[in-house]
Amino acid sequence: MADKARFTITTFMDKEDYRKFLYFATFRKTPTVAVPLIFLSALGSLMLLFILGVFSPVVFFSIWIFMLLSCIVALSFKIERLTKKQVKNHSEQLFEYPSILSFYEEELVASNRNAEGSTRLKYNDFLAITETKDYIIFYFTDTTANLLRKKDLDKEEIVQVCKFLKTKAGKKYRVL
Fold it and tell me: Which letter does DSSP use for residue 24 in this model?
């Protein structure tokens, strides 16, 4: 890697960023999570109506909506519990040290001041790069990601970094 970094950005993640990221990863990263929820809650309401020996479209839709909302609430509780557990067990690792992201022409180098070494990944090797209103999320694998808070950059840097990433990542770059 003889070339100079195009951008070097120091970013932090606080507890609220982590919490938002978990919700994003559950509900928005893979919209297909909604399909099984909708299907299973409809199937459950049909089974309940069959057991009761009653069928009315109004009752069916009422039970379906209730079951769907119950699933969403259960997922939300799970996310909140996971957030509290991670904050309790890994607070120093997650929140006290910044991540340093260096954007080179052919690769991204991500390092953390509390860990030895760094992660190097070519842009076309990313699983995905997702831009949201507040973040740019780099998915190394399906279960490993790095978060760049946009509030750690000025507006011009955000535009430049996003433009650079769009050209480097191509179809793997999504804006939500």
Answer: I
Claim to verify: residue 83 and residue 103 sit in the same structural domain:
no
Residue 2 lies in a domain: no
pTM of the shown model: 0.71
Helices and strands, number each (H, E), in the chain: 4, 8
Domain boundary at 92, 116, 138, which? Answer: 92
Q: Is residue 105 part of a domain?
A: yes
Same domain, 83 and 151: no
- pLDDT tens-digit map of 62-93: 999 999 999 889 888 888 888 788 777 766 65
85 domain-assigned: yes
Encode pLDDT of 14-70 as tens digits: 888 888 888 877 776 666 777 888 888 999 999 999 898 888 899 999 999 999 999
Under DSSP, is residue 97 helix (H, G, I), strand (E, B) or coil? coil
Domain range enclosing 116: 7-14+95-175
> What distances in angstroms separate CA 81 from CA 18, 86, 116, one per listed residue?
12, 9, 29
Q: Which two tokens stand for residue 60?
A: 């069916």
Q: By CB neighbour count within 10 A (0-12 exposed, 13-18 middle, 19+ buried), where does 2 fall? A: exposed
